[in-house]
Amino acid sequence: MITAFLVAFGTVFLAELPDKTMVASLVLTTRFHRPFAVWVGVSAAFVMHVVLAVSLGSLLRHLPVTPVRCAVAVLFLVGGIIMLRTKHEDQEDGGPDAAGVSFRKVALTAASVVGLAEFGDLTQLATAGIATRYSAPVAVALGAWCALVTVAALAVTAGRWIVQHVPLKIVQRVAGIVFIAFGVASAVSAFA
């Protein structure tokens, strides 16, 4: 049981570090200035994905990859365009985007963005594969989820630091470009 947990944690942690979800968590934190709300939303999305991956195991590998990747591509392209088109006013206090947004709305936004982006992702497939290898679904689920929320915690912590040291205008432009790059990469991978 401990082996299944450690294998799931190690594999998913390393796969998730350079992943788009870490960037999405960081961007959501810089946008809303509510790191804990972003982390809660992202963590909730991860619960759904880990439970789905472990429950479905190898069946998940037979889902049509192309439509999922196309949906992810559209999401990131739209997100990137929105980030690039957002007015960039110097906002020391978080500005209108962050000031009136409730904890619940930020958490739901984070859960939705990450929930859709993670569907069919490498870490979900890896979790399904690990679940089919070990007969310890709870240990695999806990290991994968702990790895995912650890990476999300790193992302929102980095996001908080970046907001304090880098102008929001630069963060949003870089994020927009990164989101568009992920969208293009997802679109290309959908048809590769």
From TrEMBL:
Which compartment or compartments is the protein found in? Answer: Membrane
Q: Does the keyword Transmembrane helix apply?
A: yes
Q: Does the keyword Membrane apply?
A: yes
* TM regions (residue ranges): 38-60, 67-84, 142-163, 170-191
Residue ranges the record marks as coiled coil: none
For molecular function, the Gene Ontology terms on record are: metal ion transmembrane transporter activity
Q: How does it sit in the membrane?
A: Multi-pass membrane protein
A GO cellular component annotation in the UniProt record: membrane
Extract the Pfam families matched here: GDT1
Q: Which of UniProt's keywords are assigned here?
A: Membrane, Transmembrane, Transmembrane helix
Instruction: Tell me which PANTHER family the record gives.
Output: TRANSMEMBRANE PROTEIN 165 (PTHR12608:SF1), TRANSMEMBRANE PROTEIN HTP-1 RELATED (PTHR12608)
Q: What family does the Swiss-Prot or TrEMBL record give for this protein?
A: Belongs to the GDT1 family.
Q: What is this protein called?
A: Unannotated protein
